[in-house]
Automatic annotation (TrEMBL):
Belongs to the HARBI1 family. This is Nuclease HARBI1 isoform X1. PANTHER family: DDE TNP4 DOMAIN-CONTAINING PROTEIN, PTHR22930. Keywords: Hydrolase, Metal-binding, Nuclease, Nucleus. It comes from Temnothorax curvispinosus.
Amino acid sequence: MEYEDLLIDSSDDENVVMPPILNILLEDNNENNELVHLPVYGLVGRVGRIQHIKVVNYIENIVRNYIARDFLMHFRLSRAVAYELINQFEVSDIFIEISNHAGNLKITAEKHILCYLWFVGHESASYRDVADRFGVTISCLHTIITRVTQFIMTLAPNVIRYPTAVEKEESATYFLQEKGFPGVIGAIDGSHIRIDKPMEDPDSYINRKSYFSIHMQGTVNHKMKFIDVFIGYPGSVHDARVLKNSTIYADLRQLCGDNYILLGDSAYPCLSQLIVPYKDNGHLTRRQRTFNQKLSSSRVIIENAFGCLKQRFRQLYHFKLRDIVRMVHVIHACCVLHNIANAQDLQFFEDAIDDQGPDIAAQNQQVIDNLPREYETNTQKRDEICLQITRG
């Protein structure tokens, strides 16, 4: 039950029908979230405002009693992983600093992390829903999300990183043995995070499927873990242009050397360290068709990774925040959480949903596919691999 902005004006006491005493949950940052008895008669002579009723001690009374499966479904990480994250946050500079200034009104590290996981894990989780569930104000929740995003981003360099020599060999062995494709250490692709129509320059955010989006470029290894992400271009920008402006493009030589490659789809240029399919012009040879099939079978791992990311952190199906920079940071943080999560957890989550439908507000707009004019192509390495695969 909620009491929304109940106003009592006692300027004309004779006409006022006084309600009984109400239990009102104070809307503040009080860690105890106590219910207080507020006699309405005490409001005589002034206007009193009754705030939302919130869940009382949700973490203490309910969350800690969840069985493992229920905890996982609600918070999208196992209890062990979530509480390891909580322990790290508790000793972080970000939390220590706020603890030194907040006194008795501090929000615990546990509440910070669990609020955050609930928010990113449910596509229908509005600020109001999450704030009421955890007994905090909306402004406090906004601060919590900011703090936890900052904290997770401090973990990013050690969680989303280029593979070591041993890890490269492990990935290459997997792709050769399981997919019959030599030298592969990862796959790269772009994905789109649906957003509401932006206030500024909305047309640039309309992608080729006619909805507003932020572009996310990801590169994953054979375990579907991100080794690089590049997030924030408007949805209209072509995958190849995003690639050319990303760090990994400049690092391809360093990352792959002479022995390894990444796999991409036909949206990307064919390079010595980035191999893409032969363009099907209706005249492909049998070897080229076989090559394309094996590449597609290997490259699908990046599409699966994006699907798993959104299935776990369902806010990414349709991000409804208005601040683009804030959304980019939260998306990046979700990629970090994806890397520390157990991929086997997905069997317990709700089914994936189709987030590719057009947006009515965007359908009538012209979409500009910004393909770079300098579409670089180096097919020699691809031809060598094609010959190697089909000989085998």
